[in-house]
Amino acid sequence: MPDELLTEPPVAGSELDTLLGTLERNRRTLAWKCADLDAAAMATRIGRSAITLGGLLRHLTRCEASSFVWKLNGGPGITAAEWDSDWEWTADSDVDKTWRDWEEAMARSRKLVAEALADGGLDRAKGHEFPGWGTPSLRRILTDMIEEYARHLGHADLIREAIDGRVGEDAP
After folding, report:
1. Cα 106 to Cα 24, 76, 112, distances in angstroms
2. The pTM is what?
3. Does the structure show a pLDDT above 50 at 2?
4. How many CA atoms lie within 13 A of 98 on its CB side?
5. For residue 5, what pLDDT band results from cuts at 50, 70 and 90?
6. N or C: which end of the chain has fewer CB within 10 A?
7. d(CA 156, CA 29)
């Protein structure tokens, strides 16, 4: 893993730099979509959707743990009942805690990715084994996380635009 945090994928870089740069760009874009909002704005919903910006941060905090603690390393997982609950889509009234939890989850994920890279690189597959499917490689887990963030950035775009008109695909 590069010593510096890639905030943008290279135009013509290695597979690793492209994966890490894309994930970090998605993380940074989500942070920009959720930035500078109070608890009421972080709890804004559109139509019948339960999704809020605060809820997206909570959901992606959980996804970071599921992907890098459980899938990549076989650590404790999140139960089906926890995934099925609606708690994560609702915004926590403590916005600072929501941000802190997400930032800590990303820091832990970055550390676990660096350890996995030192222990087999992108092909490393030593975490949770899924019956009938196998153990995902670091490459697969990074790709899944990129997709997870990208999917939810669309939600964040719509919600943030409804709050104050902020639009765009990349943080300035």
Report:
1. 10, 17, 10
2. 0.90
3. no
4. 26
5. low
6. C
7. 9
